[in-house]
Write a structure and sequence with these properties.
There is one protein chain. The protein is mostly helical. The chain has one domain. The protein has 2 helices and no strands.
Length: 69
């Protein structure tokens, strides 16, 4: 299962969401100019990355259920 390429891509997408989330939380905690300029953009990136990660997870589950692995 861990060698399945779709699983690896989905896991990397989840890691990407985590990185974007941590950048957003760090900017929020620090505040200041960075947060004012980039908070909304980082939130949009997180939402897009999260949607991609969920789609990949659903594709992985559907692929595994259909006996494709």
């Amino acid at each position: 299962m861990a060698k399945d390429p779709l699983f690896i891509v989905a896991a990397l997408a989840c890691l990407g969401v985590l990185v974007i989330l941590m950048i957003g939380i760090g900017g929020f905690a620090k505040g200041g100019d960075f947060n004012r300029k980039h908070a909304n953009r980082i939130m949009r990136y997180r939402i897009i990355a999260q949607a991609v990660a969920v789609a990949l997870i659903l594709a992985f589950v559907a692929f595994r259920r259909s006996g494709g692995g």
